[in-house]
């Protein structure tokens, strides 16, 4: 027990070390107490809702409490403060958007479970080329494509071992070159006539050096088999940092290309479906048509920028391989691909079902033509959302066998073994181990915040308050909100950032009579552009820990990429977005509020 009369002990209690030691406890306790003044001084439903949202925003940005646990706060806070009932709050945690996300995650787990994603990755890398620049392009294209359909965290975690194995081959190549270069200098005297006169001594010297070189190369190979090689020089360190950063960036960018690719996309979809009863024009097909072009452009520009930053351009550019080095690299990649063997029956089944799912999503309600969902609605009078086809495919994954059964017409006539059954393409154990359940709760918390803001009247209050921005051009407003979202998403989860920003952006758009998609679409995409800090996204953290790079390297690369990608999406929203979604006009569906 510390005596209050002992100033030395009291000083230690309130020192910087104590503050840093117990910072989580201070963040958990102090913000709710300070913010509690708002509902006390202004006791209204809107302010009580704002109080809960503000506390959740602090917890999400600081991560003093696990993010999924913070997302559970509305279940007890909104009913106790009279904002929404428990029934109204809980029901949004498993709405159709969250069921869509759950189904998408299960399909992604099936792809991982059968190693189909690894086969796709190695196949692409094998055919793009073997120079560091081409390899980085292969890494980025593969990570971008896979993260459109499966979690960017899972994509990055799968790519890191592949990148690491290829980098080990790059290190061995550079070590062998460093052994050979000094030998060449020794074996090539400037005076050629002197070498001809001393042919016998030169031959003896050459033989001895060749033996020494072989011994050193054998040592390098022996060390490579027993322990991990480290970058032998600055060029290899630059290639290492470039390749790992490229994987994280492509994983983050790729998630923007598909509606189910990342959390912010689903937050936007959930808010639109929960706010407006009429179609907004944004669905799976239109999302792909609009977002794939900027996704490809951002990935390409990132590829160019990382080359220029780490390898240089022009005559002083680094990272070139000769023919023999390229062949050696290709042999190594081919060996890893061959180790996977032929495509299994399970991989083929998962691939076919995955293509079927994309087809069902694309043509459910494509807007430009009647979709298959219209047939069911006309016949039964009930609408069908994207969650229906994904859960149908998940059901098939759980019942279709992972291999052909050893019975009936599938049985080999020469096989005398007893018939055996086959496990399904997807098992519940795989779901239990690999599915990120916390993300589903996190999305539910964001939907609860949006619903409470609308029910309590906070939306209308914010809309009136934000009308003061009406004097600014809408392009200027877009720049402001996008920069704010980009800054926050680099220090907080992109899903949490979208959950905080998008309800406010929706109310701002309605208050200023701007098409809500104009601002909401750009902010949603920008939330995924978090390239600067290792803590910004899980892919950033994965590659930072795996590579051993310095934080300043990621920051130096990420700042420019953030700016470039932000400008790209703003340009696309004001060009292609205007054409596709008629963003210059205030749409009629904004009057169909739920």
UniProtKB/TrEMBL annotation:
MF-aspect GO terms: citrate transmembrane transporter activity; succinate transmembrane transporter activity
Membrane topology: Multi-pass membrane protein
Alphabetically ordered keywords of this record: Membrane, Transmembrane, Transmembrane helix, Transport
Annotated Pfam families: Na_sulph_symp
Superkingdom of the source species: Eukaryota
InterPro entries linked: Na/sul_symport_CS, SLC13A/DASS
CDD domains given in the database record: SLC13_permease
Main location: membrane
A GO cellular component annotation in the UniProt record: plasma membrane
Transmembrane region(s): 20-42, 49-77, 139-167, 284-306, 345-363, 384-404, 475-505, 517-536, 557-581
Locations listed in the record: Membrane
Family: Belongs to the SLC13A/DASS transporter (TC 2.A.47) family. NADC subfamily.
Name by which UniProt lists this protein: Solute carrier family 13 member 5
Originating organism: Meganyctiphanes norvegica (Northern krill)
């Amino acid at each position: 027990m510390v005596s209050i009369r002992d100033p030395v002990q009291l000083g230690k209690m309130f020192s910087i070390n104590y503050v840093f030691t117990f910072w989580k406890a201070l963040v958990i306790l102090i913000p709710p107490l300070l913010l509690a003044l708002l509902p006390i001084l202004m006791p209204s439903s809107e302010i009580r809702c704002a109080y809960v949202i503000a506390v959740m925003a602090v917890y999400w940005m600081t991560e003093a409490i696990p993010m999924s646990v913070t997302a559970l706060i509305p279940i007890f806070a909104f009913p106790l403060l009279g904002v929404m009932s428990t029934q109204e709050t809980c029901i949004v945690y498993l709405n159709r958007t969250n069921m869509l996300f759950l189904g998408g995650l299960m399909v992604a787990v099936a792809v991982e479970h059968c190693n189909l994603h690894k086969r796709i990755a190695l196949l692409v890398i094998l055919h793009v080329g073997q120079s560091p620049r081409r390899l980085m392009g292969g890494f980025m294209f593969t990570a971008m494509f896979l993260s459109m359909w499966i979690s960017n965290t899972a994509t990055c975690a799968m790519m890191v071992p592949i990148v690491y194995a290829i980098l080990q081959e790059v290190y061995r190549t550079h070590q062998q070159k460093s052994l050979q270069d000094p030998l060449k200098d020794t074996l090539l005297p400037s005076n050629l006539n002197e070498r001809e006169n001393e042919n016998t001594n030169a031959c003896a010297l050459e033989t001895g050096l060749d033996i020494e070189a072989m011994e050193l190369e054998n040592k390098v190979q022996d060390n490579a088999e027993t322990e991990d090689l480290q970058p032998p020089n600055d060029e290899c360190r630059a290639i290492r940092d470039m390749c790992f950063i490229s994987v994280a960036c492509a994983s983050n960018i790729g998630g923007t290309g598909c509606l189910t690719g990342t959390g912010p996309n689903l937050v936007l979809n959930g808010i639109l479906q929960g706010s407006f009863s009429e179609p907004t024009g944004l669905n799976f097909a239109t999302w792909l048509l609009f977002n794939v072009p900027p996704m490809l452009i951002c990935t390409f520009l990132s590829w160019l920028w990382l080359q220029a930053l780490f390898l240089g351009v022009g005559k002083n550019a680094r990272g070139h391989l000769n023919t023999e080095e390229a062949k050696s690299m290709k042999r190594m990649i081919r060996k890893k691909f061959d180790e996977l063997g032929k495509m299994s029956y399970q991989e083929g089944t998962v691939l076919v079902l995955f293509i079927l799912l994309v087809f069902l999503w694309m043509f459910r309600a494509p807007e430009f033509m009647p979709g298959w969902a219209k047939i069911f609605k006309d016949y039964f009078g009930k609408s069908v959302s994207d969650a229906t086809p994904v859960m149908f495919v998940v059901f098939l994954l759980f019942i279709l066998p992972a291999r052909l059964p050893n019975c009936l017409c599938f049985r080999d006539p020469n096989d005398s073994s007893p018939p055996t059954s086959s496990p399904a393409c997807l098992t519940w154990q795989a779901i239990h181990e690999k599915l990120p359940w916390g993300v589903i709760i996190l999305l539910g918390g964001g939907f609860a915040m949006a619903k409470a803001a609308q029910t309590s009247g906070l939306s209308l209050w914010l809309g009136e308050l934000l009308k003061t921005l009406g004097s600014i051009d809408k392009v200027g407003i877009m720049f402001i909100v996008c920069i704010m979202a980009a800054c926050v998403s680099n220090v907080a989860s992109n899903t949490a950032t979208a959950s905080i920003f998008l309800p406010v952006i929706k109310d701002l758009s309605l208050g200023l009579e701007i098409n809500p998609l104009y601002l909401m679409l750009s902010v949603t995409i920008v939330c995924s552009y978090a390239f600067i800090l290792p803590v910004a996204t899980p892919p950033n953290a994965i590659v930072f820990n795996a590579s051993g790079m310095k934080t300043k390297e990621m920051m130096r690369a990420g700042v420019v990429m953030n700016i470039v990608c932000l400008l790209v999406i703003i340009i696309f929203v004001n060009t292609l977005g205007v054409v596709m979604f008629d963003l210059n006009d205030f749409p009629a569906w904004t009057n169909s509020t739920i």
